[in-house]
Design brief:
The chain is mainly alpha-helical. It folds into two domains: about 60 residues, no CATH class; about 70 residues, no CATH class. Helix content is about 75%, strand content about 0%. It is built from four helices and no strands. Helix 3 packs antiparallel against helix 4. The longest helix has 28 residues. The protein is flat, with a radius of gyration of 20 Å. About 10% of the residues are buried.
Length: about 140
């Protein structure tokens, strides 16, 4: 988003935040918990880069943290639903990996169908996909 408004310096700042997070969190995680700790360190590093990105977005006038939270919850729920669906299919005696992939595809797609339709409707009506915080939609021409 920062790059889209010509602020490559903020993209670099987010990347630096993530690199610093990797250096610190992966080392600490590996020191205390071994490989699982290193994986958690990567998660922490990604979170560090994300926090910097939130800060940059706020500075540029974008306030999408609530929408981001909603979509993050949707990702988590759709992932768990896909996993549970595969567990159900496996317990029913179907161990085919291609079938598992198809089940995950269908379940996860169902979770994302409505947001996709809303986005397509906005594009079809010629409305902008994103707005700066505090900016209302333009009134339709009479």
């Amino acid at each position: 988003m920062a790059l889209a408004v010509g602020r490559s310096d903020w993209v670099a700042a987010s990347s630096v935040g993530k690199v610093v997070g990797i250096a610190g969190f992966v080392y600490l995680g590996d020191s205390f918990l071994g490989f699982p700790g290193a994986v958690l360190g990567v998660v922490g590093a990604t979170a560090t880069g994300y926090v910097v990105s939130l800060f940059v977005a706020k500075m540029l006038g974008f306030n999408g943290w609530l929408m981001d939270l909603r979509y993050s919850v949707r990702v988590a729920i759709s992932g768990v639903a896909g996993w549970l669906a595969v567990q159900w299919v496996t317990n029913a005696g179907f161990g085919n990996a291609l079938l598992h992939a198809l089940v995950v595809f269908v379940v996860v797609t169902v979770f994302w169908a409505r947001p996709l339709l809303v986005l397509l409707q906005r594009v079809k009506r010629g409305k902008p996909i994103f707005r700066k915080s505090g900016q209302s939609e333009p009134s339709p021409a009479a």
